[in-house]
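It is worth pausing here to work through a concrete case rather than discussing structure prediction in the abstract. The textbook approach is simple: state the sequence, then state the predicted structure, then interpret. We follow exactly that order.
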Amino acid sequence: MTTDTKSALLDAAERAARAQGVDGFSYADLAEAVGIRKPSIHYHFPAKSDLSAALMARYSARLRDVCDGIAHQHETGGARLAAFIDMYRAALEGGKSLCLCVAFSTSRDSLPADVIAQIRAFREMMIAWLRVCFDRAVDDRSIADVAFPAMEAAAALSLLEGAQLAARAEENPALFDNAVQLLQTRLR
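Step two, the predicted structure:
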């Protein structure tokens, strides 16, 4: 097995998990998607719990890099928040997908404790990043009426995750747009 096969397995598993949840696909599905035999998957990921942990670790690292890129591209807190909202909107893929953290959360009872801990750490990372946006907006006034940046950050992440779930449930991205509209009207 090459690193390319491992990456292909992670890519296929992420697509499947984001569209169907971690319980919505099997190793047989992955083998078919990647074009390998099912037992070959066990070389890299002996159990689905190992695959789930690897997916969450890779996703966290990727999103940390994306958020760093947003921070470098956009100076104001409002512009950063707008880009973050756009990132969550794009993850919907027309209402057929969720961000991996939200998708994993829907399958929480099937996940091992270490993956649940990774989800918690991911959310903490996202809230901390959003708090910086809201803190910055207090100074640059690019988001209206920010009084409690830490609470705003937690509420914004919950809003985006809930908006994704609503949009995915009906495969209707307009539900996401409607849910975040009030937050977006605060951006200057």
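Step three, interpretation. The two ends are 51 Å apart (CA to CA). The chain has one domain: 47-185.
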